[in-house]
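Illustration 12: Bcr/CflA family efflux MFS transporter.
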Amino acid sequence: MTKQKYFLLIVLLGSLTALGPFSIDMYLPGFPAIAKDLNTTVLKVSLSLSSYFIGISAGQLLYGPLLDRFGRKKPLYIGLVVYIIASAICVFATSLDALIILRFMQAIGSCAAAVASIAMVRDLFPVKENAKVFALLMLVVGVSPMIAPTLGGYVTVAWGWHSVFIILMGLGILNLIASWLWLPDGYKPDTSLSLKPIPILKNFLSVLKEPQFYTYAFTGALAFSGLFAYISGSPLVFIDIFQVSEEGYGWIFALLATGLIGSSQINTFLLRKYRSEQVIFAALSTQVLVVLFFLLGSINNWFGLTETVLLLFLFLSCLGLTNPNTSALSLAPFSKNAGSASALMGAVQMGLGALASFGVSMFEVKSAVPMVAIMTGTTIIALLILLVGRRNIKVQIEESKDTTTFVH
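Figure caption equivalent — predicted structure in token form:
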């Protein structure tokens, strides 16, 4: 693969992967405006965020078998069309219930892009390169939480929250066109795969039985669900509690995103000296210490805006190290059914993320404690799963001398 093709492929896959995060982050500064227009509260508006996470989780289980059966591109096109239509209708939402349902449909569409892009990493790159490619994708994806909430804040102030969904619709159209023109097909559809419920469930079960998959998929998903708790609770913490403006919230969100992006790139250099399992353990152990201190301080009201931002920065920096490595190790044992494995991994991550987000929205108190408590609980459980689960892994697939090559 030439450097030019490599770069183009990373950008295309990164753009598809970023569609979901952009859809999550861009409307966050508009929560107070949405609450006012729809006669509800900011915490109730966050239910539309939870429904989005649920949609992604459920949708990935739908698209996984389709991606293996029909190839990556056809299901991707269908998903992007659904996303574009749902985004357009969101512009005209007049009730919270309507917005919650439309956000669910928007997620069903966008998750096709997420599953396809992750599966194509396994299709188009050698196994040994997967963790590095995921780190590069996180760099591309990382631009979205830097740009999206900042842009969303200014757009909301200038033209109202409805205009955010017009922009998201445009991004969906651009991704559809770019995928049609330039995305290579690196996977031959497996026509032997059945789309009947029982064979699909058996296929998912065979993936789930792999010790390396369930250990790293659940470790990564639980660690990462703290991010969803943060996303759901941050409008309340920054805008309501610390009285930050919509534009200011966007800039804080962008600043915190640099922790996630920067550490994911540091991960590339760490992998030259350390194995992925070592990086995961060190980062997750640090993450536990950070959230325990964060929780103790939140309960006792020790922290102001600066301290809160600093602790969240450290927390997200740990995630930037764990996520690329847990993703790579989860998918490493699979080649034939990488689409199903990718879908199941994404469904677990988004499903647990939805629960974390929903949990934050259920506590109608003007405090950071619910958000931080959920972040703490999920991180500790993630570390426990890692410690117990890795005992069942006999051989790390990551070390396999796989010779997967790029197919145009």
